[in-house]
User: Fold these one by one.
Assistant:
Number 1:
Amino acid sequence: MPSFDALKISASALSAQKLRMEIISSNLANIHTTRTEEGKPYKKKEVVFSPYTFKDALNEKLEGVKVEEIVESDKPFQKVYDPSHPDADREGYVTYPNMNLIEEMTDLIDASRSYEANVNVLSATKEMIIKTFDIIK
C-alpha cells in the first residue's frame, strides 16, 4: 500500500535529519576547539545522504532516506592571530576548526525544517489512512 511506503520514507527521513542535527550540534559545540586528542583542531563533520535519481523514483526503487556516511570537511582551518593563546604557533597564530558559525546555524535551521516537514507528512498520511478506514467501514 503506497500510504505505508510514505510512512516508511518519512520515518527514515526523520532519522536522517535527527542524525544531521546531532552532527551539526557537535560541530557547534566544538567551534572553538583548537586541540583534540590527536593534537589538531576539531574538523567539521558532515552527513552525506545516498543520492536518488528521478529514474529511481519512476522505477519505484525509493527505499527511504539513507545516510551514506559521515565525513570530515576538507575546508582549510582558520588561522587567527592570538599570541597569548596556549595553542598559538611560533608566529602567534592559532589554528581554529574549519567551520563558520553562520553556516552551521543555517544548516541546523534547514535540518530542523526538513524534520518538521516530515512530521507533517507523517501526520497527513496517518489522517488519510484513518479516513480510508472510515470509508471502508
Number 2:
Amino acid sequence: MSRQALGKGLRSLIPQGEAVNRNQVSQIDVEKITANPFQPRRHFDQDKLEELAESIRNHGVLEPIIVRRTGDEYQIVVGERRWRASQLAGLGTIPAVVKELSDREMMEMALIENLQREDLNAIEEAEGYRILMDEFAMTQEEVAKSVGKKRSSIANTLRLLTLEPPLKQMVAEGRLSPGHAKVLLSVESGKLRYALAQKVLEEDLSVRQLEKLVQQRPKKAVRKDSKDPEVQTVQDELQRLLGTKVRLFYKRGKGRIEIEYYSDEELERIIELLRG
C-alpha cells in the first residue's frame, strides 16, 4: 500500500500547501489546548522536543496544528509535538485550524498522521489499532481500510500485544524489532521467549539467526500450526481482547481456556475486562 493511499484520509483533514486558507487559521492560547485523548503515541523524545522548541523560537510554528473545540477549550487532533514544543519555547499562542470531528475521526486521523510520519513504535501502532477496534467497534478490515494497509498487516501487528510485558517493552524501546517479536511469537513457552529475547540482545542476533535458533529447539517448544483454523481465529480474538497470551483447547464442544498473566496488576486488569 502506497504512502499516497495512507495519506488520503489525512489530506482530507489538513489543508495542504497553497490550499491553506489563512482565514481558517486562528491563534489559540496554548493553555486552552489539551492533548488528544486518543493519541496512539505514548513517548515523545525530550531531546527532539527541545530541538523543535529551539526552531520554533527562531522561526515560529510554520504549520498550524489541527484542533477540535470542546466547550471553551480545544483538543489536539494533529500536531501534538508542535504544541508541546511551543510550550517549551514559551509561546503564549499557537496557530491552529479548528475542525468539527467525532471521536472516531479524531482517533483515525491521529493514527494516520503518526503512521505517515513513521512516528510510532510497533507497540504503539498495535495499541492504536486495538483502540479503534475496541472503542469504535471496528473490524480488522475496517481498520485496514481507514489507515490504508492490508488486513493481514493489521492482524500481524495486533499479535505483538500478546507478548509478555517485558518483551513488549523491548519492542517499544526498539531493542527488539517487530521481526524478532514475530519469530518469538512462534515459541509456546513464555520463559523460553524471554530467554531467546535476551540472547538476541546479548549476541545481536538477526531475525534470520533467531529463526534458525528457534528451529533447533525441541519441537514441543514451538507452537504447532495444525490447530483448526476456526479455533485459532477464536484464540487470536481472545488474545486481542485480553491483551495477553491465551490458549484455547477445543474438542467436540468441550475444552478449556488458559489465560497468562505476569503480575498482580496484570491479573487485576484481566479480571476487570472479564467483568465487563
Number 3:
Amino acid sequence: MDNTQMAASLVKLVPEASVTQGKQFVELTVPPEKIRVVFEKLKNDGELSFDMLVCLTGMDWGSELGVIYHLRSTSFNHMAVVKTRITDRKNPVIDSVCSVFAGAEYHEREVYDLLGIKFSGHPDLRRLFLDSTWGFPLRKDYKDDVNIVTK
C-alpha cells in the first residue's frame, strides 16, 4: 500500500481526522478527545493494522501543546504519524493510549514530566526524571533562575 492508498483508507476509517501527506509519512490530525478511539481503529483495522507505537513526542507550539505519535504496521511495513493539539496550556489533558499500546506508558510519563501534559487513564502517571520542585522545562515559557545556567 502506498501513501496515497493509505491516505484514502484513513479518510474512510477516521472521518474525524484531517489527513495530509507529510514529507515522509501520511499524517492524521485528530482532536484530543478522540485519540484513544482513533488508535483502537488504527490498530484493529485489518487493512492498515498499525500494531506498533514507535515513538510518542510532546510538543510546545507556543499557543498550544500537543503530542505526536509515530505508528507502524509490522505486518505491512508502513508508517503513519498522528498529531493532536491541546489548546488549554494551564491544564493540558489528553487520554492515555496505554490501553491500546502498552509501550506508551513510559513515553507518556516523560511527556508529563517535561511538558506537563496529563494523560487521563494512565496507570501510573508520575514524574520520571525530575522531582516536584521543577516545573516543566521543555515548555517555551519555562523559566528557572536556580537550576538553569545561562551566559
Number 4:
Amino acid sequence: MTNKKERFTQDEIPYEILAKFGLSQEMIDDLPQSVMQRLLSGGTTPLLPLQTENVDRLMVEVLARIYFVRLNDGTVEVGFIPQLAEEDLSAFSQEQQDELEEGNIIIASIADKGDCYVQLDKELNQVMYVPTTIISQNIYILTHTFQLEEDDRKRLEDGDIIEMNVKNHIISIGIDLTDMTGIRMTDGDKEEWKQEAGIDDLPRYSFGLFGCWQCDEHHVLSYIAEEDYTPELLEEQQRTQSMHAAEAQLRQLKI
C-alpha cells in the first residue's frame, strides 16, 4: 500500500537457487539494467526461460517472472510467477472482457468468492481477483493515513487512479492486484502510474559481459551466450558499442 519496496543488494542475489532453474550467474549479471534495478527494488522481471523437471523427471523449459523475497531470518529467496495456459474469459460478459483486455480493473462476482476486483495479467495469461472487502479495508487504512476526501476514496474504490499533493509532491494511487497489498503508489502523476504498471520498454538486444538478452515482440527474454553469437549479432554488438561510446562523448562535452 506504499511505494516503498524491499531493497536488495547485488551481493544478496541467491545465484545458487537461480542456477537450479537454469539461470546462471552470468545470465543474471547480464540482465538489462532496468530489469536488474526493478528486481533489486522488490519488483519482478519480464518473462525469463527457466529449466525444471517434470513429473517424468525430464528437463522442460517454462517461462516465468522472478522476484526476491526476504525471509524472517534475513536470507533472500527466489519467487516465481509462471506463465499459464491461455486464460478462459468466458465467465465474464463481453463488456467485462473488453475492459480486462484493455488492462482495466473491474468488479465482478466470482463463484464462492463473492464480489471481487478482477484484473488480467496479459503477459502471464492469468486472471487475478481479490475480494472487494479486502481491498476496501486497505483503502480504509489509506484513507485515514492520508486523510483522503470522500470523493477520492470513492473513485479509488471504483478502480480510478487518484492524484495527491503531499508536501508539494505529486503521488498517484490506484488498485493494482500485482502489488502485495492490491494498491500501488507511484511518485508522479497518473500517466507515470500507468507507465510503471507496464512492461519495461527494452531494446531487442541487451549486451552484457558474457552474453546478450534478446527481447521478442511479446516482451519475453531469451539468453544468447557470447560464444553463440552469429555474424549478424556480432555486427549489432559493434554498432551498439559505437553508439554508446558516442553518447558517452556527448555527455562529456562542455557547452
